[in-house]
Amino acid sequence: MFRYILRRLLQMVLAFFGTTLIVYALMFAGQGDPIQALAGERPVTAAQRAYLTEKYHLDATGVGGFFYRYFDYVKSLLQGDLGQSLTGRQIGDILQAAWPVTVKLALIALAVAIIFGVTAGVVAGIRRASIFDNSTLVLTLLVLGIPTIVLAPLAQYLLGVKWQLFPPTAGSQPTFYALLLPGIVLGSLSLATALRLTRTSVAENLRADYVRTARSKGLVKRRIVTVHVLRNSLIPVVTFLGVELGNLMSGAIITEGVFNIPGVGFNLFRGIRTEDGPLVVGIVSVLVVVYLVSNLVVDVLYAVLDPRIRYE
Amino acid sequence: MRVRRLAAWTALPLAVTLGLAACGSGGDGGSGGSTSSAVSIQIGEPKHLVPTNTAETNGAQVLAGLFTPLVDYDAQNKPFEVAAQSVTSSDNKVWTIKLKDGYTFHNGEKVTAEDYINAWNYGAYAPNGQDSSFFFEKIAGYADLQGEKPKAKEMSGLKKVDDLTFTVTLSDPYIDFRTMLGYNAYLPMPDAAFSAPGVLKDSYEQAPIGQGPFKMKGTWQHDSKINVERYDAYPGEKPKVKEIEFRIYQQLTAAYADVLADNLDVLPILPTESLSSAPTDLGDRYKTSPMSSFQFLAFPTFDKNFANPDVRKAISMAIDRDEITKSVFKGSQTPARSFVSPVLPGYRENTTGKAGEFNPTEAKKLYQAAGGPSKILISYNGDGGHKDWVDATVNQLKANLGVDAVGVAEPKFADLLTKVKAKQPVGAFRLGWVMDYPSMEDYLGPLYSTNGSSNYYGYSNPEFDKLVKEGSAAKTQAEAIAKYQQAEDILAKDMPTIPLRFGQNVFGHSTKVKNVEMDLFQRVNLIKIEAAS
């Protein structure tokens, strides 16, 4: 197990450099005139142009200039310095402020997906073809079919503005209650997928030989389901939720925007919109690490769930 | 054993969630509605909060609370003194600015002439990279502060007379200098802002110290909010509210939902998506007021297709401005038939004359006679919500001129400018303008004079340049306006651009506030706003 983790960590280093290089190249290759973008629709004076060019190393051009900037960037990155955004703020500070709220939101979403998705999935799996099963099928299809960009404003309007059950936006230091609605909206998509996965998996395992054996042994149904079936059925669900956690940590651009939550996705979106190259690359570099780690955790979790899986 | 371990794995995320959530509720609960005393106003995250580096509305809104300008504008948009006792000049070249006694910075420092001189020199010094540095270019000695290694650190045109008086010498006489002083580049900064002469403290921007009606409460909480509270030692007109929270939103739609739920008090710009439903949603809390923005179509002079003024006039006549402002903008903007905004002293209606009137038959006749191109491109930046009206304009041109017309979206305004500078065939392109101070010169100079800072299309007419220059150097306002109006008449003849629309403030507020007013610069009047009891 230890050797496996070590090997994975070494691979992560390579993956990290590869992805940051690609992101860095893409972000700065597609950029028109970053200085004009900075100034918006206002004219840029020559003095200002000179100042910004020097500050952001925009003087060296071509491939040489690119690698010069990239290595410069990686060097400070390894020293834990994510650099400055184009508006002059430390990206480290931005992320420090953004992360807690995104993590809270992600965990609420994940909790919603686990509590409702897995439970309903198990029930639907046991009572196949029942009214409950069919109605969850329709509901999940509906949720999967509606994109967040529709679902989030709709939920905000109905539950936040019209019936005033929840505050319509969360803000930067939200209460648990204020985050609940965005969390549910964000979690609803994973909820639907988790539900479908659990249902199929439970339904399949209920027909397995070991369940028949357990039943013929005279075990009560509840014990068969909770101990034998559930444990085996959760493997694909855990895979999915693990990857999903990585996704959710990277911030939900749409949900955070609609509910005005200044998290990671909110900042990433602003970075993209204002062509703030350093900010985008900085956030993505950190996200790469988050993804790599969450994938590793999922793989290690397999071994916990299924003793047949062994890592050498 | 194993079962229990499994349970632990699933329980873990839940426990963490609840734990974190518990931490969250320990905060000040900023989201759960504004506290009873603070009035909340929507802004976007400001770029900077240093007066000479704030050239966008969000920062300007906050600065309007923290600082008091030398002059402000009355209902007719004429300047009157606020922080200044008097701003006078006998020749419009050497200006004497006397400050009112009694103003103090929020840290207790007395406001002196030096605080203005230091701040302005800091703003003009090129290596500081200040966004508004070009506002000082009319002051004598500005050129010495430019370049990578400037010759001087201080403008020779600024001279202290005594603690409350200083003189400003301009390189050329400029009649509107007094009007200009209302812009936020001309605010003072206290000694406490500088760590050494000419070096601004990094921390200053996080909690700017001004001399205005409000002082910072805490620091700038990036992406979240900026809180200010009433400054009791302020000698001017006292604000009616104790505290204001500038709440930062990334999306206007989110802020709009908050206004509807009484969770946010003032939304200075309503989102385009909600314009049609807003009057019913908000009722009498839906408001409009005049604003200075001006939208127009420009024709690059390098494109020979549009070289004949009659072609441009024909295109102008083929556009039904009333229809577009009604159907696309739901009346939130008004049709423009002049080259300067109606908010200005010296504005005249319909200076474009016949060319501004919608007349499809005349337009087609004129267009064909002038030999206009068979295909018209209209370029715009795709990130600014311009698609709808460009599409509508293109359709009108197709129908009324019998030509092929296409709207071309460039991703960003910067991309559009790059193409124009490279003389690529962009066709006509959209531009907008918001004034910095209420003077006709602020439209005519930058947009149409040969060396104008925003004259991207290359219009040049020596006679026009001469008239604008004479206007700036005039002895009296009346004389200046007469010259400016003559210059505008030349524009009407040449039609280098087609005026399309003037903007308005379209804003809304919650049921918890009253007397919400907005100025020409899209800023909420922080003195007049009151809590509704």
Question: Could you walk me through the main structural features you see in this protein, from its secondary elements to its overall organization?
Answer:
The complex is a heterodimer of chains A (312) and B (533). Chain A has 312 residues and is mainly alpha-helical. Chain A folds into two domains: 2-78, no CATH class; 92-305, MetI-like (MetI-like fold), CATH 1.10.3720.10. Helices cover 77% and strands 0% of the residues of chain A. Chain A is built from 13 helices and no strands. Chain A is globular and about 85 Å long. Chain A starts with a helix and ends in a 7-residue tail after the last helix. The model of chain A has no long low-confidence stretch (mean pLDDT 83). With 533 residues, chain B is an alpha+beta fold. Chain B has three domains: 38-66 and 207-287 and 508-531, D-Maltodextrin-Binding Protein, domain 2 (3-Layer(aba) Sandwich); 71-200, Dipeptide-binding Protein, domain 1, CATH 3.90.76.10; 291-504, Roll (Dipeptide-binding Protein, domain 3), CATH 3.10.105.10. In chain B, 28% of the residues lie in helices and 20% in strands. Chain B has 14 helices and 21 strands. In chain B, strands 13, 14, 15, 16, 17, 18 and 19 form a seven-stranded mixed sheet that branches. In chain B, strands 1-12-11-10 form a four-stranded mixed sheet, with helices on one face. In chain B, strands 4-5-7-6 form a four-stranded antiparallel sheet, covered by helices on one side. In chain B, helix 7 (309-317) runs antiparallel to helix 9 (360-369). Chain B is globular and about 70 Å long. Chain B starts with a helix and ends with a strand. Residues 1-35 of chain B have low confidence and may be disordered. Chains A and B meet through helix 2, helix 3, helix 5, helix 7 and helix 8 of A and helix 1, helix 5 and helix 11 of B.
